[in-house]
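SAMPLE LOG
Freezer: B-3
Tube label: C17
Construct: single chain, 214 aa
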Amino acid sequence: MEEDISIINSNTRNEKVRNFFVKNKNKIISTIVVLVIILIGAYSFDSYKTNKKKEISNKFNSTTLAYSEKTKDLTTQKLVEIINDQDPTYSPLSLYFIIDNKLISNQSEINSYFDMLIEKTSLDKEIKNLVIYKKALFNADEAQESDLLNMLNPLINSKSVWKSHALYLMAEYFYSKDQKQKSKEFFNQIVSLENPNSDIRLQAEKRLNRDLSD
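STRUCTURE (predicted):
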């Protein structure tokens, strides 16, 4: 008797499952199709990003290796294209190459590329901080005090590994302007940091002891 009841219950369950699938066949098929499309799309996008990264990498390497005075204009054009691609690795490297080799003399144009990297490119946190520091360093000779501070404040008010570099840049900026007290304050901030860059701290201590001692 119990065996018969068990068989009946099993048949009932099977019937319910069968009815459920029959009733919801279209929904189930649609869900499966959507999942397959999502998986294919995700794979295709990942493949696209990988291929795009490789393409940008090859373009950067071939462009910089072929650089000479004769290819200056073409090199600049290709590196600007890479910057506009907003690649987290090769866009910053392209801008640094342009600056190091003085391929673009227009300061406003260079700053616009810095801003693109900082504001629009998906950079790792400390890579972004490095770009901020390099922008300040690029502008330091001609920048007003307030402008330079505005550039560096994101680093100065953070725990970034580039904080001591930012403080040192401001300290040297004020020292070059013969504003010794302000310079000393920034050098002292470096010395007081919990984990400053060791070389930066050493240079700050030397400056304080040699040129800014009371």
